């Protein structure tokens, strides 16, 4: 409690110092995220630097970067943006906590490829979801980036079908949607905090886990797991968010530059993520991990098991917002 209070007090004090008066506030834009700062390996890091360079190059605004969780975790960053303490934040999973409709993006096996996801998010569906979340949160989605596809790993056997998941315990995030997904596939979901995952894998508390390839490699999880299946069950998007109150206070020309910078930043983040995924697959294989790429028919078999359980759960949770499930499915179908 003391650490959290101190962190928020520091954020508030810094924001007050930078924002004394409307003119001073308009000159400094604070951007925060939880990824490393290294633009060559970090999707959010790359996006943040591109955003900063474009905005500072084309306006009188100054962009101050706070990477690597310097201002807190994603939930805290969203709260700061809503309070006006931090103007721009790059977040992924935390968005669905403040805008539940965003959770439909986590329906497993929705996107057959990253390019399909980009077409959907950069089109009418993405625009409509952004407008809805703006109403819900007071945060404007400037653009979408990418955290990447999540894949299963385990230390017991190669997984080519849902039947291969039976009897295996998989660490999942403490999020009901992921629990329902693994249950639907026949595995045994075990919610475990991220910090406890390496020990849980080492001691056999769980047999496997699921994460994007880059996360698996960069955190040495491949050294604790023998098999990876590139099933891409969930595509995770990054949201580049700005406080709408701050945005509306900008000059029209500044708004246009900020929007453009975010679009370019999101594209850069996607490129770094794609690069990291391809590089990560090669690296884990070189270090002894067995990697399997399912066929289209095998992916369809996974989807047939996983999607109904998650969709039923979300319809119950979202209530009137469940229409976003249908909207997403229609948008994906329109890309074919």
From TrEMBL:
Molecular function, one GO term: carbohydrate binding
Keyword field: Periplasm, Signal
Residue spans crossing the bilayer: none
Name under which the protein is recorded: 2,3-diketo-L-gulonate-binding periplasmic protein YiaO
Pfam families for this protein: DctP
Major location category of this protein: periplasm
Signal peptide start-end: 1-26
Annotated Gene Ontology cellular component terms: outer membrane-bounded periplasmic space
Source superkingdom: Bacteria
GO biological process: transmembrane transport
Compartment(s) where it occurs, according to its Swiss-Prot or TrEMBL record: Periplasm
């Amino acid at each position: 409690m003391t650490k959290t209070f101190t962190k928020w007090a520091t954020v508030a004090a810094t924001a007050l110092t930078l924002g004394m008066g409307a003119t001073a506030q308009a000159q400094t834009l604070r951007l925060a995220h939880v990824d490393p700062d290294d633009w060559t390996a970090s999707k959010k890091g790359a996006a943040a630097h591109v955003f900063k360079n474009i905005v500072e190059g084309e306006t009188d605004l100054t962009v101050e970067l706070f990477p690597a969780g310097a201002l807190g975790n994603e939930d805290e960053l969203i709260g700061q943006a809503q309070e006006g303490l931090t103007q721009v934040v790059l977040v992924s999973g935390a968005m669905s906590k403040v805008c539940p409709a965003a959770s439909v993006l986590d329906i497993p096996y929705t996107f057959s490829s990253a390019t399909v996801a980009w077409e959907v998010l950069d089109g009418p569906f993405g625009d409509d979801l952004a407008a809805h979340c703006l109403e819900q949160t007071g945060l404007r989605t400037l653009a979408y980036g990418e955290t990447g596809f999540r894949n299963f790993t385990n230390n017991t056997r190669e997984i080519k079908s849902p039947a291969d998941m039976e009897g295996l315990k998989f660490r999942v995030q403490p999020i009901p949607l992921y629990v329902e997904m693994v249950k639907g596939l026949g595995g045994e979901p075990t919610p475990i905090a991220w910090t406890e995952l390496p020990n849980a894998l080492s001691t056999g508390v769980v047999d496997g886990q699921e994460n994007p390839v880059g996360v698996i490699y960069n955190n040495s999880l491949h050294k604790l797991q023998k098999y990876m299946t590139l099933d891409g069950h969930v595509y995770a998007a990054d949201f580049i968010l700005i406080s709408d109150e701050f945005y509306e206070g900008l000059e029209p020309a500044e708004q246009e530059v900020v929007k453009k910078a975010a679009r370019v930043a999101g594209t850069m983040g996607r490129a770094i993520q794609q690069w990291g995924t391809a590089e990560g697959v090669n690296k884990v294989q070189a270090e002894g991990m067995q990697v399997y790429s399912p066929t289209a028919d095998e992916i369809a078999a996974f989807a047939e098991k996983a999607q109904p359980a998650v969709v039923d759960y979300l319809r119950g949770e979202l209530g009137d917002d469940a229409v976003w499930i249908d909207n997403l499915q229609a948008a994906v179908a329109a890309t074919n």
